[in-house]
Amino acid sequence: xxxxxxxxxxxxxxxxxxxxxxxxxxxxxxxxxxxxxxxxxxxxxxxxxxxxxxxxxxxxxxxxxxxxxxxxxxxxxxxxxxxxxxxxxxxxxxxxxxxxxxxxxxxxxxxxxxxxxxxxxxxxxxxxxxxxxxxxxxxxxxxxxxxxxxxxxxxxxxxxxxxxxxxxxxxxxxxxxxxxxxxxxxxxxxxxxxxxxxxxxxxxxxxxxxxxxxxxxxxxxxxxxxxxxxxxxxxxxxxxxxxxxxxxxxxxxxxxxxxxxxxxxxxxxxxxxxxxxxxxxxxxxxxxxxxxxxxxxxxxxxxxxxxxxxxxxxxxxxxxxxxxxxxxxxxxxxxxxxxxxxxxxxxxxxxxxxxxxxxxxxxxxxxxxxxxxxxxxxxxxxxxxxxxxxxxxxxxxxxxxxxxxxxxxxxxxxxxxxxxxxxxxxxxxxxxxxxxxxxxxxxxxxxxxxxxxxxxxxxxxxxxxxxxxxxxxxxxxxxxxxxxxxxxxxxxx
Length: 493
Known about the structure:
Layout: H1 2-22, H2 37-42, H3 44-49, E1 54-66, E2 69-75, E3 80-86, H4 87-90, H5 92-98, E4 106-115, E5 121-132, E6 142-144, E7 147-149, H6 155-160, H7 162-168, H8 172-192, E8 196-197, E9 203-204, E10 216-219, E11 224-228, H9 233-241, E12 246-254, E13 266-275, H10 279-298, E14 302-305, E15 308-311, E16 317-320, H11 321-329, H12 338-347, H13 358-369, E17 378-381, E18 403-408, E19 411-418, H14 423-434, H15 448-455, E20 461-467, H16 468-476
Parallel strand pairs: 3-5, 8-12, 16-17
Antiparallel strand pairs: 1-2, 1-4, 2-3, 4-5, 6-7, 9-11, 10-11, 12-13, 13-20, 14-15, 17-18, 18-19, 19-20
Helix pairs in contact: 8-10, 8-16, 11-13, 12-13, 14-15
């Protein structure tokens, strides 16, 4: 800490020197940028032949001072480019000021584009403007023959200082550019299918739509507790009741849960609802959204992820949950007694909160024995009735649901239902779920307002949720959710 503080003080002294000795403001208000690094490099022939003057700004990432001439490399939003700076071109005062600059300072330059003797495209500058004097030293990352050395390798430090990570770590900015492209493409597809993008409340008087512990807040003026939403579902369904036949929202959800490779307390969900559809329509839409986005972002359905080769080519495999358990573990749960199911759950280290419920035991065995084996895209359908109160029972066997979960690389990417729209059934299932709150902190409370909305009449509806962060992980090859969140949740230092 003392070394950093002394370096900061040295740089503050330089700021004063630049002001006092050179008469230059180290923090001017504006600079007219007309060109960017990749644009100049890609269009070199035109810029060189026409002797076109360029104006570019960026952060100093490397410097070689050689007497009265120097080279430096700056980084802008598009990439890096080399500059040639000589006192004969910019004047002695500005050249001496340049020698006071440090890595991390931001400068604006004007000049013409040429190649050096070794063939590197370079801006030969005739005007230099200091735009920002950096006082906190950046990690020094070295590059030679295309390889990077002395990387900012401590991931904890990177996540806590994402602004520095974006500056010095290769590829980080590209990951987040891809994230933006992924979300943009999903919106484009849904908009083309007449879905309306909407916004629903983040602060809610009753939370629901999933099984999760919430974050609690308090509104002083109304003197009521409010909860950060754990799901987008309840309010989107009210819009279906209100006559918006197709709606979607891409928004933040919050769950008071642990942090691991695929979980962060604050995360981004896509939820969509389509009136007069069912879970089969949602399957087709899931395939289209993910495959089309993969093609737009990566140009292929074949991915290398977490050391495995995954092919998103459709159609994807479909399996009932009980069939998947039988195929991947050898257990025929449909023919097993309750005592046998209990014994298997215990044998594999599982747990069922509260009283034994057969459907939850089957779901627990699936999570323990099957999930991690589903590497290629697989729709798991027909979950036990007890796993959710918000879904319609299957037509042929009402012990199971018209529901699917999409698994890729052993992780859930999507969850979809033929939505329950029978208000009597819905009231009963939500009430029964709320009774488990004494034994299960993730069981949501009864939402009377939501049930009353359904009582006004909701058409048959298909609904689906897709985890945006996990999809970004898959399509960028990042194996930790923290690497696709600009500012992941961290324990304070």
